[in-house]
Amino acid sequence: MELGAYIIVRGLVQGVGFRYFVYNRAIRLGLNGFVRNLYNGNVDIEVEGERSLIEEFIEEVKVGPRAAKVTDIKIEWKQLDQHFKYFEIR
Question: What are the Cα distances from residue 61, in Å, to 19, 31, 40?
């Protein structure tokens, strides 16, 4: 079943290659959406695809790249609404 998820990641997640890490994981899993830095130091991700693949993606995002330190992750599941055609870094 195709779903979407809106994810906020908190911690040391800017300036450590986190968006590129997320991008590479999403592309590898065939997910669509985007990742971007927020002004407050968090990173937000909007992703669409098979629920099992999104769950696998979330497990990897919780760890992040070696230099990152994820302290909290908030996930909001939703129905597909954007229908992204690819995954991008914003």
Answer: 10, 13, 19
Listed in order, strand segments (DSSP E) in 1-90 are: 2-12, 32-37, 43-50, 69-78, 87-89
Catalytic residues: 19, 37
**How does DSSP classify residue 52?**
H
65: left (phi over 0), alpha (psi -120 to 50) or beta: beta
Predicted confidence band of residue 59 (pLDDT cuts 50, 70, 90): very high
Domains of the chain: 2-82 (3.30.70.100)
Q: Determine the Cα–Cα distance for residues 82 and 50; give it in Å rounded to an integer.
A: 15
8: nearest Cα among 28, 29, 27, 35: 35
Asked whether the predicted pLDDT for residue 29 surpasses 80, the reply is yes
